[in-house]
Design a protein that fits this description.
The protein has about 200 residues and is mainly beta. About 10% of the residues lie in helices and about 55% in strands.
Length: about 200
């Protein structure tokens, strides 16, 4: 089931790439900073800040993303919020299909607006840094599979360095939770011609 899921995601991405007449672009998201909840149904028990980076191989209709980062979170309902602080490093691989950092001019015009709106799926690995594991808690660590959506808006300042506001949500198949992130990315177009 999981191998079939990953195969279909990669097949969709390949079809989108080969359907375009332009070469894929390389975008480095560095940094990516957001307010995050690893489980929106229990946001009062675990929320915080997500800091990460990712390399994107993208076209106007799709992207493949390899990234890493860490979620710094607290339990706001805890009697000792300081003791509830938790760092969760992660690595991820995602494939997205839809509008990826584009506008009507295919981002060919500076001083203009553009957006991201895509469905995505992938694999995520959360490293467990807890010293003790509370009984009865949904694990959410180790390998997990995700499906979700990402929306973004940015102003094309120049062809190399830009900023994007984004909102993304993911359903985590193994953990059976929905996570959400809202924040910004600074991204570098590594294939930009910077004469």
């Amino acid at each position: 089931m999981k191998k079939t899921f990953l195969f279909l995601i990669n097949l969709l991405f390949s079809a989108a790439v080969f359907g375009q007449s332009v070469l894929p672009r390389l975008f480095l998201d560095i940094p990516q900073l957001s307010i995050a909840s690893p489980d929106v149904e229990n946001i009062d028990r675990r929320a915080g800040v997500d800091l990460g980076t990712a390399m994107n191989l993208g076209t106007h209709w799709s992207t493949v993303r390899l990234g890493a980062g860490a979620l710094f979170s607290v339990d706001a309902s805890s009697t000792d919020v300081g003791d509830s602080f938790l760092t969760t490093p992660y690595g991820l691989f995602e494939v997205g299909v839809g509008k990826y950092r584009t506008n009507g001019n295919r981002c060919a015009q500076t001083k203009s607006n553009a957006f991201t709106a895509m469905a995505k799926g992938g694999v995520r690995y959360n490293f467990d840094t807890r010293k003790t594991k509370p009984a009865g808690e949904t694990d959410g660590y180790g390998i997990d599979y995700t499906v979700g959506a990402e929306f973004g808006y940015f102003y094309i300042r120049d062809v190399f360095k830009n900023f994007e506001l984004f909102l993304q949500g993911n359903y985590h198949v193994n953990a059976k939770v929905i996570s959400a992130n809202f924040g910004f990315k600074t991204f570098l177009n590594l294939r930009a011609d910077r004469d």
